[in-house]
């Protein structure tokens, strides 16, 4: 069995646990180390059993808890060369392992491939992980979906995919205009409608679960994001896909 537990997702911090056959790794550690430990225990994972941390990019909501969590437990931190370089001040003296974006590598039972994402960071990536015959696609923090992103995510059993904001809420919200422009740009974040449209093309016969992630607290609503994604998938004929919404304040668990 493979289990994916989004420990928290949003602008205040992101971290996701993936485990299989007794092995466990984290994708990002942007929550505080204390919160990561607490939420790992909530989902039945010994924090000392985490074998690696994979970084998507260097922004604080993805690396904020890495230094304390990894250094206290001797956990190696994997990232693209650009991400590790940009995140170096935040990471401190942790054990770092670089990978080349696009390359495949293995950590325990997990086969992993990183692929580039269009976002305003040094070398941001998404991941496809395979273990026990299950394929997981992970892509948050992207302003648009390239052909390569769609290709990599096609054929996954589970997708963790960004639906950051509702366009109207963003436009009418309190953010300064330059921040609104950044969020809505091709190097920013996906809206609910954009995410739903792309998912309707990416989801295939194997796909059983979609976890909608990285929701803005100010410019989105969990019920709205789910309704938009679920409705678009149903209209496209994907009626057997369970749609989940990752939350900022508590874990969201899917087992395959």
Based on the structure given, which CATH architecture is correct? 4-Layer Sandwich
Low-confidence stretches: none
Task: Please tell me how large the radius of gyration is.
Answer: 17 Å
Average pLDDT for all residues? 98
| Helix and strand run | EEEHEHHEHEEEEEHEHHHEHEE
Structural class: alpha/beta
Strand order of the largest sheet: 6-5-4-3-2-1-14
Biggest beta sheet summary: 7 strands, mixed
Please provide the count of β strands. Answer: 14
The H-level CATH homologous superfamily, spelled out, is: Ribonuclease Z/Hydroxyacylglutathione hydrolase-like
β-sheet strand percentage: 25-35%
* Shape by Cα distribution: globular
Highest CATH level, the class:
Alpha Beta
Q: What's the tally of helices?
A: 9
Keywords:
single chain; 256 residues; alpha/beta; Metallo-beta-lactamase, Chain A; 7-stranded mixed sheet; 14 strands; 31% helix; 29% strand
Topology diagram in text:
Elements: E1 2-8, E2 15-20, E3 23-27, H1 33-42, E4 50-54, H2 60-63, H3 66-73, E5 77-80, H4 81-91, E6 96-99, E7 104-107, E8 110-116, E9 125-131, E10 134-139, H5 147-153, E11 158-162, H6 167-172, H7 177-184, H8 192-202, E12 209-213, H9 222-235, E13 242-245, E14 252-255
Parallel strand pairs: 3-4, 4-5, 5-6, 10-11, 11-12, 12-13
Antiparallel strand pairs: 1-2, 1-14, 2-3, 7-8, 8-9, 9-10
Helix pairs in contact: 1-3, 8-9
Please characterize this protein's 3D structure.
This protein has nine helices and 14 strands. It is of the alpha/beta class. It has one domain (2-255): Ribonuclease Z/Hydroxyacylglutathione hydrolase-like (Metallo-beta-lactamase, Chain A, 4-Layer Sandwich). The strands form two sheets. A seven-stranded mixed β-sheet has the order 6-5-4-3-2-1-14. A seven-stranded mixed β-sheet has the order 7-8-9-10-11-12-13. Strand 9 and strand 10 form a beta hairpin. The chain is globular.
């Amino acid at each position: 069995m493979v289990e994916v537990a989004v420990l928290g997702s949003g602008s205040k911090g992101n971290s996701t646990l993936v485990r299989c056959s007794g092995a466990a790794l984290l994708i990002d550690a942007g929550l505080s180390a204390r919160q990561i430990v607490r939420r790992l225990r909530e989902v039945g994972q010994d924090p000392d059993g985490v074998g690696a941390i994979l970084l998507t990019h260097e922004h604080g909501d993805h690396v904020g808890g890495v230094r304390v969590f990894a250094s206290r437990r001797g956990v190696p931190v994997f990232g693209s060369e650009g991400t590790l370089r940009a995140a170096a001040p935040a990471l401190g003296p942790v054990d770092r392992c670089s990978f080349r974006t696009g390359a495949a590598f293995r950590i325990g039972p997990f086969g992993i491939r990183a692929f580039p994402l269009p976002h305003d960071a040094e070398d941001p990536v998404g991941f496809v992980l395979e273990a026990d015959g299950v394929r997981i696609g992970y892509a948050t923090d992207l302003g648009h979906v390239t052909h390569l992103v769609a290709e990599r995510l096609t054929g996954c059993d589970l997708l963790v995919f960004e639906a950051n904001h509702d366009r109207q809420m963003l436009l009418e919200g309190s953010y300064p205009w330059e921040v609104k422009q950044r969020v809505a740009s091709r190097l920013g974040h996906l809206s609910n409608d954009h995410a739903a449209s792309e998912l309707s093309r990416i989801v295939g016969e194997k796909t059983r679960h979609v976890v909608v992630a990285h929701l803005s607290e100010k410019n989105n609503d969990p019920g709205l994001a789910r309704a938009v994604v679920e409705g678009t998938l149903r209209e496209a004929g994907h009626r057997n896909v369970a749609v989940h919404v990752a939350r900022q304040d508590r874990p969201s668990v899917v087992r395959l």
